[in-house]
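In response to the reviewer comment on reproducibility (Comment 2.3), we provide here a single inverse folding case reported in full, input and output, so that an independent group could reproduce the run without further information from us. The structure tokens appear first.
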């Protein structure tokens, strides 16, 4: 017997609690069920489970809901390690076994490649695993002063809200940073600008160099300055401030003096004898251990040779460019942000690499004429942001198509879209694809794909 379609109440807590059987997981890690022909996305539910749910958002064609109870559990369900799981919106999948998380991401990649791009890889690569906990070296934490309670919250936002989660630790952050959450709350509440400090951006480099960028919306008093300095000295961190846009980010304490130099953020790739300095607000991979594994796989797929000319598009600070250059190939790295290109040139000089050049280019506005003007390359490495590399891929023609393209993606949907163009329009074969579990316990899917030009 079919139930009447659910009516949305003004208060979601008044919506009825209903049963469902979970069929699969979606791209956000939610259980997917169909109730009376309507798709329901249920947070906290896993494939093959029987649950009851309560909808939070009801639309004509779908609903978004929370799990209320689980009457039949998946054998892949585990106890979340973090006490804040379910409240904090930072992790979606701590209740799913780590191997099952990766398998779900692999299925999502395969499904997107087929349903969006109409392509299937000839070979699925073994997934790449990294650290499961304490892996996150970069993050942006929200800050909220709660006047009624005279306290400060520091952490990620609550699930599906703009409220800051009440938390005192984080299992995916580097342990030294997780241990700072409670002291940060205690320190910020002492400031005169406690209600004008909305965000902390953090970056961790090698040798436990920790930089905290405080977004401040008002001037610091002398007492505030003293409080920041005491915090930095006690916890062995660097405090930076940001008053407006990114160009206002600057070190506050400690500062370089004639007597001492402050340690700089950097990461290294020992396999390629490379060191990369970086600024705390510049893009680097949040998981440096798996970054090393990812680069190794990219080099195995790309197979750079001494005589080749290779392009690295969306090169950032040269994360892939410099390992390619170590092979002896001539490499051009192009990136849209001038500050990242400046850092890439700095790293090339530091590592005494002379066969890599870098340039600034808006690759989202690439044209066939502009691509042809760059010259012909034997191989490409492409590592775009979430929007993908559509204009770049569309600009390929007979005169500028490389034999090999290695595509590193942080969004399987745009990878699938671009793969569809490469395979169905540009004469390439998708030889291999696989996932990289860069962000354990989240629904984020990082992947890598190999394309070869047909003879």
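Designed residues, in position order:
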């Amino acid at each position: 017997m079919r139930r009447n379609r659910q009516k949305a109440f003004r208060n979601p807590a008044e919506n009825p609690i209903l049963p469902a059987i979970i069929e699969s997981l979606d791209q956000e890690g939610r259980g997917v069920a169909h109730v009376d022909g309507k798709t329901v996305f249920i947070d906290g539910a896993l494939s093959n489970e029987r649950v009851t749910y309560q909808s939070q958002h009801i639309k004509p064609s779908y609903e978004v809901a929370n799990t209320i109870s689980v009457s039949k559990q998946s054998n892949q369900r585990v106890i979340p390690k973090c006490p804040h799981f379910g409240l904090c919106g930072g992790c979606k999948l701590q209740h799913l076994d780590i191997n099952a998380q990766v398998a779900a991401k692999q299925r999502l990649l395969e499904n997107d490649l087929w349903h969006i791009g109409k392509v299937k890889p000839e070979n699925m690569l073994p997934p790449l695993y990294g650290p499961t906990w304490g892996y996150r070296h970069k993050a942006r934490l929200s800050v909220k002063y709660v006047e009624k309670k005279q306290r400060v919250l520091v952490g990620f936002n609550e699930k599906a809200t703009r409220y800051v989660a009440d938390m005192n630790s984080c299992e995916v952050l580097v342990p030294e940073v997780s241990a700072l959450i409670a002291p940060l709350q205690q320190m910020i509440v002492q400031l005169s600008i406690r209600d004008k400090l909305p965000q902390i951006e953090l970056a961790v480099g090698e040798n436990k160099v920790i930089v905290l960028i405080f977004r401040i919306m008002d001037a610091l008093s002398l007492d505030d300055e003293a409080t920041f300095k005491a915090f930095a000295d006690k916890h062995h961190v660097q405090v930076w401030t940001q008053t407006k846009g990114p160009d206002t980010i600057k070190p506050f304490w400690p500062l370089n003096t004639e007597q001492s130099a402050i340690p700089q953020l950097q990461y290294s790739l020992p396999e390629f004898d490379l060191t990369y300095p970086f600024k705390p607000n510049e893009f680097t991979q949040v998981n440096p251990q798996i970054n090393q594994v990812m680069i190794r796989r990219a080099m195995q797929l790309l197979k750079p040779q001494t005589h080749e000319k290779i392009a690295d598009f969306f090169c950032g600070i040269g994360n892939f460019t410099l390992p390619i250059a170590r092979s002896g190939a001539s490499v051009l790295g192009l990136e849209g942000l001038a500050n990242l290109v400046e850092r890439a040139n700095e790293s090339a000089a530091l590592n005494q690499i002379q066969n890599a050049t870098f340039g600034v280019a808006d690759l989202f506005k690439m044209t066939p004429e502009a691509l042809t003007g760059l010259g012909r390359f034997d191989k490409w490495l492409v590592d775009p942001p979430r929007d993908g590399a559509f204009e770049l891929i569309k600009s390929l023609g007979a005169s500028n198509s490389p034999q090999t393209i290695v595509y590193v993606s942080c969004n399987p949907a745009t990878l699938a879209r671009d793969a569809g163009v490469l395979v169905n329009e540009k004469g390439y074969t998708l030889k291999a694809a696989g996932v990289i579990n860069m962000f354990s316990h989240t629904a984020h899917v990082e992947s890598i794909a190999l394309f070869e030009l047909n003879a």
